[in-house]
Amino acid sequence: MKKFINDPADVVTEALTGLAAAHPELRVDATGQYVARAGAPRAGKVALVSGGGSGHEPLHGGFVGTGMLDAACPGEIFTSPVPDQILAATQAVDGGAGVVHVVKNYTGDVMNFQLAAEMAADEGVAVETVLVDDDVAVEDSTWTAGRRGTGATLLVEKIAGARAEEGGKLTEVAAIGREVNIGSASFAYALTAGTTPAAGRPGFDLPDDEIEAGVGIHGEPGRRREPLRPARDLVAAALDAILEAKPRDRGDRVIVLVNGLGGTPLIELYLVYGEVARILGERGVEIARRLVGNYVTSLDMAGLSITLTRVDDEMLRLWDAPVVTPGLRWGA
Amino acid sequence: MKKFINDPADVVTEALTGLAAAHPELRVDATGQYVARAGAPRAGKVALVSGGGSGHEPLHGGFVGTGMLDAACPGEIFTSPVPDQILAATQAVDGGAGVVHVVKNYTGDVMNFQLAAEMAADEGVAVETVLVDDDVAVEDSTWTAGRRGTGATLLVEKIAGARAEEGGKLTEVAAIGREVNIGSASFAYALTAGTTPAAGRPGFDLPDDEIEAGVGIHGEPGRRREPLRPARDLVAAALDAILEAKPRDRGDRVIVLVNGLGGTPLIELYLVYGEVARILGERGVEIARRLVGNYVTSLDMAGLSITLTRVDDEMLRLWDAPVVTPGLRWGA
To answer: With a threshold of 0.95, does the pTM exceed it?
Structure first.
């Protein structure tokens, strides 16, 4: 294994140290192991808290800031954060208007956020949970009952975060987050496996001429192994899967996320976006906004995911609202 | 080779198609093969043009926009753009106040930009060239006489771009660009080689337990092969090399760029930034600003570079000025 690390056991803590040094506008609590906006809690503002295993950066710590998350709880690599950690973050950012937990649908995350929400309720903090389960590749998976939560998490956090920033109430913020998730569908391909520092070798074996279609962001198996095909064919198949699960009519508007899983060059992501734009154009689906880059990663996995989220005017307004975070920034 | 491409010969063109589709605020000229700001030329504004081989994205096409480049000329992968292409871009964005060419110091780039500058002069366009040669690893290299141009290119383009945006004259914009380069020093490590679509295999061989210290952004050899060491030791050695080449006194202020070469997870880049901040703190060098991410890449190479640029108040003011490009964005 070749990585820029010291002791594999210290990777998450040391990366948080670096994040804190790089972003004085964040408050990194090393004891509680969470990342919060400086100045939190803000009285009367609904707070958003997310989290999950590390290794998916910039998700979630890189999305803490104005217009998006109030706090993020990074677990160890590919390991759910623990309930105490989530509770500490929840209490740290609650401004009295309640807290929305954005939870990717993985068994450990769901269980630990659930426990933390109950503990928070006991402490008088109102919590609403938005479960993200946009990955249409498989119904159940290695660590999931139901569909996995992947790329749409970014859209939920951005759009619900904007609603909270402008003063939305707890139920309103949660409601639009759920609506974004319902309107979202994702599909991913892996060309190679990522390598966790603890294991020190690729998470799965993939022959030189095969790819994993429908892979999860921890390298979980997808639909099948298949031979590598030209990008245009892979994109067409991904969009078929997405539009079969969540049909879109001509004239529907979507936000498209072409997301690198960590080891894919940007030049390939743009090439893929070109194919997505061409095919959706042929199908009459209007791309209202788009994002191309590495946002929800799987360490150094060569691969990508495509997410389509159906949007209306209200969601577009919230998408366009200012966001200032390490990983996503515009309008301010 | 596993990549998200169609025909290897079409990668650059198809990626430009995707870039154009994703960023309607850019004007991609498929014939001339350059990327320009929509609305260029702007009368009376000094224009900045850069370019070089593709495979380093977001450099340069991703840095076209408000406050940075007016145009970029992408060559084929790791291949210099041709003079006609550079001339077309230069003429397309010249608003009558002259054009600054930002050129990374590689023999092909230098020669082709030089030819294009002469051709532009014949057409009545005043051109000043800013040569970037910040990489302190080696004096001469595979494709270079003198030091190679790498990470500092981003800082030159950002700071000179801001000076042009606020109305700086041709000589002023070029002068501050040169000053940024003179104050910059970079050093890179490769853990793995990148794979070009045309070759279809890694650009060089690196044993499982060795790294290339001082690698170039095309995989050119650096100072030596050496065993992998903990991140803290690699960072210390890189900073030694940087500060030996360009000594900094206690109290000097710098902008730090911790730049991924394409295949390195963000969590490792932040861990490395933490080490950089600690060591510079011990040495009394003040980090005035910093940037952590993938900006000047080498396809899917696992590796990173560290750049230190000495800055004064004027440079910081220009660094902080609004920039709106696909790859770098703040303040607007």
So the answer is: yes
* Residue A56 is among the residues annotated as catalytic for this protein: yes
Mean pLDDT of A321-331: 97
Residue A30 pLDDT class (50, 70, 90 cuts): confident
Contact A153, A132 (CB under 8 A): yes
Nearest CA distance, B291 vs chain A (angstrom): 8
A269 CB neighbours in chain B (<8 A) are: 4, 18
Q: Which of B232, B266, B267, B306 would best serve as a mutation to test chain A binding (most A beta carbons within 10 A)?
A: B267
List active site positions of B. Answer: 56, 218
Contact criterion met (CB < 8 Å) for B271 and A14: yes
In chain B the domains, ranked by start, together with CATH numbers, are: 9-183 (3.40.50.10440), 184-323 (3.30.1180.20)
Strand order in the sheet with B184-190: B224-227, B210-213, B184-190, B303-310, B253-260, B286-293
pLDDT at residue A332 tops 90: no
Q: B35-46: per-residue pLDDT in tens?
A: 999 999 999 999
The count of CB pairs under 8 A between chains A and B is 183
* Distances, alpha carbon A320 to alpha carbons A110, A155, A263, B89, in Å: 30, 11, 28, 31
CB contact under 8 A, A191 and B294: no
pLDDT digits (tens, 9 = 90+) for B277-323: 999 999 999 999 999 999 999 999 999 999 999 999 999 999 999 99
Which is nearest to B233 in space by CA: B272, B184, B286, B264? B272
